[in-house]
Amino acid sequence: MRQPDESELLILEYLFAMAGLKQTPRNLRIESMNDGEMGSLLFENLDGVNRRLGETVAECYFEDSERYFGFSHLELRPAGKAL
Length: 83
Hints:
This protein has 83 residues and is an alpha+beta fold. Helices cover 16% and strands 28% of the residues. The chain has one domain. It contains 1 helix and 4 strands. The chain has a two-stranded antiparallel sheet with strand order 1-2. Strands 3-4 form a two-stranded antiparallel sheet. Strand 1 and strand 2 form a beta hairpin.
């Protein structure tokens, strides 16, 4: 687990704001998922509850530094915590 880097924070802070979350992603720990280099992130599971897909609460499209278009979305599990 690690803290998000600056490029990840740009997107995460935007998604958290769009979702109306008061928590800052700067204090969260994440890990990169094994998803074929797509850039998916998994948030640290602090409460030990099994993860279940919740709902998409924010999404955005962006252009990266190589001028490729990307899509990001934030999923919350039923308890309202980031997946």
